[in-house]
Specification:
Layout lengths: L3 E3 L2 E3 L6 E5 L8 H14 L3 E6 L2 H4 L22 H8 L3 H14 L2 E6 L2 H9 L5 E3 L7 H8 L5 E4 L5 H13 L5 E6 L14 H9 L2 E6 L5 H8 L4 E5 L17 H18 L19 E4 L14 E4 L10 H4 L20
Parallel strand pairs: 3-4, 3-10, 4-5, 6-7, 7-8, 8-9, 9-10
Antiparallel strand pairs: 1-2, 11-12
Helix pairs in contact: 1-4, 1-10, 6-7, 9-10
Length: 349
């Protein structure tokens, strides 16, 4: 797999994780709040900010009964129709340009999730650098093919998709012209629990589909995201808000600025810690030899004195011969005088 460029950053196992802050509907229908979210994401060190580009009419029917009404008592959105939810959560299209402009001013990459071909056409006018297909749309093969036809990197969340469906999704993307594909392991519950995250799927997906793999994470906190890096995730997406207390359709499972900053820092630390297969002492560890054990003369001795357990000790620091040679020296006569505190060496017998 060759590395992928998302905006001005390279994505791949040889690079720190690419962190996406998803605004979603956390702007609470205020452009001012939306721009504050951009600034907070940039200050926290996120690499990209994601919008969602749709209107309620492009998403569903304006009905408040039957299949179009959310009556699941465990849902964050119980008591609303799908149409009402999307009306509340959508980002007005006329806001996209000022939000994109603020992102670019702040040095983070703006992009979006389109939910309809019309969304893609609109985003093309804004020179969006890549696209993200949401989990609930990963079975919309015509949409995927249309997004892929634009010749830009494509990120697809895999929530709810069976392996067979995911094969269809990937095939549609590649047949549509996508040459730079990133799949995000995702659990489509809000919030998700760590027990349901199953991030061990990440290396399996990489092997099966031969592309970059990341995590779209709806759990609370950053533990699952940090762990995913160890398993090879190169992209992390988390919902983001200024304050959960301020509310918003996704606020309950969104990170606040101090948490996003910690996510950026700790995922990079996890990536750095992976390193490579290494045994033995590193250059930096040489400074710690003072705290390792080795063989030292513990009493002032003269030429010809016999070494024993009283005048030869296994102690710190570690500049003498290794403790494993203790038995080789016990009972041997010194070839030269040695003061207490002399590191044992082979030429002393």
């Amino acid at each position: 797999m060759s590395e992928i460029k998302l905006g001005n950053r390279s994505v791949g196992v040889g690079h720190p994780p690419f962190i996406i802050a998803e605004m979603s509907g956390n702007h609470n229908q205020s452009l001012e709040i939306a721009l504050e979210i951009v600034d907070a994401a940039a200050d926290a060190g996120a690499h990209a900010l994601k919008l969602q580009t749709y209107t309620a009419d492009l998403m569903t029917l304006n009905l408040d009964y039957g299949d179009f009404y959310i009556d699941d008592p465990t849902s964050l959105w119980k008591g609303r129709s799908l149409y009402q939810l999307y009306e509340e959560a959508y980002t007005p299209w006329e806001w996209h340009k000022p939000i994109f402009d603020r992102c670019r001013e702040r040095g983070i990459t703006p992009f979006s999730t389109p939910f309809h071909p019309d969304s893609i056409d609109f985003l093309e006018e804004l020179d969006v650098p890549f696209y993200k297909i949401a989990s609930f749309e990963n079975n919309d093969l015509p949409l995927i093919k249309y997004a892929a036809s634009k010749g830009k990197p494509l990120i697809i969340s895999t929530g709810m998709a069976s392996l067979a469906e995911l094969e269809e999704t990937v095939t549609a993307a590649r047949e549509g012209g996508c040459k730079e594909l990133i799949l995000l392991k995702c659990t489509s519950s809000y919030p998700a629990t760590p027990l349901d995250s199953n991030i061990n799927t990440i290396p399996h997906m990489r092997e099966l589909f031969g592309c970059e793999i990341g995590l779209s994470d709806h759990t609370l906190g950053i533990g699952a995201a940090v762990a995913s890096v160890v398993l090879g995730a190169t992209v992390i997406e988390k919902h983001f808000t200024i304050s959960r207390a301020a509310g918003g359709v996704d606020a309950a499972f969104s990170l606040e600025p101090h948490e996003m900053k910690l996510l950026v820092e700790e995922t990079e630390r996890a990536w750095q810690a992976l390193g490579h297969i290494s045994y033995g002492r590193s250059d930096k560890e040489s400074q710690s030899l003072k705290f390792r054990r080795s063989l030292y003369i513990s009493q002032d001795l003269q030429l010809g004195d016999t070494l024993n357990e009283h005048n030869l000790k296994i102690i710190r620091p570690g500049y003498g011969l290794a403790p494993k040679y203790m038995d080789r020296f016990i009972g041997k006569k010194l070839a030269k005088a040695a003061k207490a505190g002399t590191a044992l060496s082979w030429d002393m017998i």
